[in-house]
Amino acid sequence: MSSGSNPESSSSSQLFSAESYFATQPSPPALDADVTGVRTFIARQAKAGRRVVLVTSGGTTVPLELNVVRFLDNFSAGTRGATSAEYFLSAGYAVIFLHRQHSLQPYSRHYSHSTNPFLDFLELEQIAEPQAASLTLSSQTSSPEPIITVRSSDPKHLHTVLSAYKAVHRAGTLHTMTFVTVNEYLWLLRAVSKELNVLGRNAMYYLAAAVSDFFLPREKMSEHKIQSGKGSLIIEMDQVPKILKSMVDEWTPEGFIVSFKLETDSSLLVPKARAALERYGHQVVIGNELHRRKFEVVFVARSAPPSPEHNRDCLEDASSQIEETWLRIDEQIAGAGKEIEEDIIYELVRRHSLWTRSQIRV
Amino acid sequence: MSSGSNPESSSSSQLFSAESYFATQPSPPALDADVTGVRTFIARQAKAGRRVVLVTSGGTTVPLELNVVRFLDNFSAGTRGATSAEYFLSAGYAVIFLHRQHSLQPYSRHYSHSTNPFLDFLELEQIAEPQAASLTLSSQTSSPEPIITVRSSDPKHLHTVLSAYKAVHRAGTLHTMTFVTVNEYLWLLRAVSKELNVLGRNAMYYLAAAVSDFFLPREKMSEHKIQSGKGSLIIEMDQVPKILKSMVDEWTPEGFIVSFKLETDSSLLVPKARAALERYGHQVVIGNELHRRKFEVVFVARSAPPSPEHNRDCLEDASSQIEETWLRIDEQIAGAGKEIEEDIIYELVRRHSLWTRSQIRV
């Protein structure tokens, strides 16, 4: 990275493999504690016979400075991940929710600090002053104590969300972990995958986080805030290694792995999703276009079993046996509160069940 | 911007003035509506004889694509701005709170969705089933209705915050506006400054937002998501024009303008703050070092009147008449809940009062 009017004329980028990445980039300080926590959680779920899904959610950052003031970010509020986690929990899964710090979380997402400000739900009620006629000696009564009450415009919804939240906490089926940088994300993904591998085919990976394709290797980072005033800013970033390949081949070969492909150019969506599936050899790529992501997604997978409930357009490619299944919901129905994640998770649970019963890779 | 293994060898950056910036970069679609809203607010406050402060808060983004997937961001949760807004309100100011969408806001900041999850404050209480001995016909009673109650570990604090929040809403002294990108920020800052200019010296500007020094001109932005797989990513950004100069010279020459200077290298803090004050000719630069910002800040200003209450180190520079005043609070006291913003706002209100009474620039 440089700040100056003359960009460097030669590139110093290198190509990182997953192996060289983890050999050269520093692990997060809390990694050991995070691993211990998730290991305990997984052991408890295994004992209870529950399937476990790792849901990743939110965008990763790429800090430009060691004392970070500026960073590259990937757009994601965490809606897809937080919503999906709720449907996995209600389908009986235990969920490891690995999310960007301060991104949306299951249940509380309905009342995030901006869309439904918490304080607007609370009312101060002053207990009425004693009436003059009641002859109470006001000098003996302490000043009236206000009471805080809950006032919701949709108490039924609040009650439903709160009940589900409390039930999940009682059952202990939700384990949350946080990342900020893409480096933290990669280290945690590897660690959790290796831990979840003990569950074999009962583990699912739902990789909804918006992960940067590029990063700045530690040795290229500026220690202090990059100074302005010297013309333009030039940043050169290296490619993040393709860790899906390592997940499939090494970390969790029996896991049911679902990745996401987000595009803004819809003509690229299916070709890129198919290419990812062929390249990494995992189970499902869910393609979504940025502006249509709440209304339609496409499942790209090898020989997916038929699902008569859903309106689907099948395109079979005989040579690769990869097929596309579209899930769509009506925009009006979505406006009335129906979430496409409900259908996505329903379909994935069905496919995961088939996966756990099969002995060979589908 | 380019994605490829060979960086471009020639720079295409240009130097934008404020004038050429606004002449070439698009205004946000909601600008007119935002201006109408803030104009009404300012008129109401002017009628009530209140001083008005514009508080900017949170970090700006620089999108890399028109259909934005990736963006550069400036680190800021919005704590300084949200906290300061509360102290301005309690000092009798009306506040225009121009903040990054989803960053912290006054009052609700105490209960943000991550640090104090809202749902943990609520309890479901099931009303007890009728006792068998009570002989109530259970077939006639509907199933018991659960009641939602508020449970806080610190009810006194919740009560204080809630009371202040409700009082401000009743008084109508807080007006919130949001930005995401640095472009939106710059357009809104200019528009609000021009509106606030009607208040003359009764307007204050407290520019606590973390504003990018660099941006990507519209004509250089990629329409769609930048594709990976072609080697490294190279981004070249242009410098954001120095709009403080325009604020002082054109938009709001009588306003009391406070800017912030954040550094991670403490040796740069005072020199950079002094340089900013000399360059732009506004009233106060508040310097803060990233890791000490909750415990100490330095006011850099011309001939500030003495303030005996505060522990201060004065360094007079006879040639420029610029002096530095440190405000410090003890880390232990800060840990017990004392906020340095209380002292910052106290000192600024004092200086602003002097400013409103003076006829010449101090």
TrEMBL record, chains A, B:
GO terms for molecular function: catalytic activity. It holds the Pfam family DFP. GO terms for biological process: coenzyme A biosynthetic process. Residues 180-293 form the DNA/pantothenate metabolism flavoprotein C-terminal domain. Transmembrane segments: none annotated. Belongs to the PPC synthetase family. This is DNA/pantothenate metabolism flavoprotein C-terminal domain-containing protein. The lineage of its organism: Eukaryota, Fungi, Dikarya, Basidiomycota, Agaricomycotina.
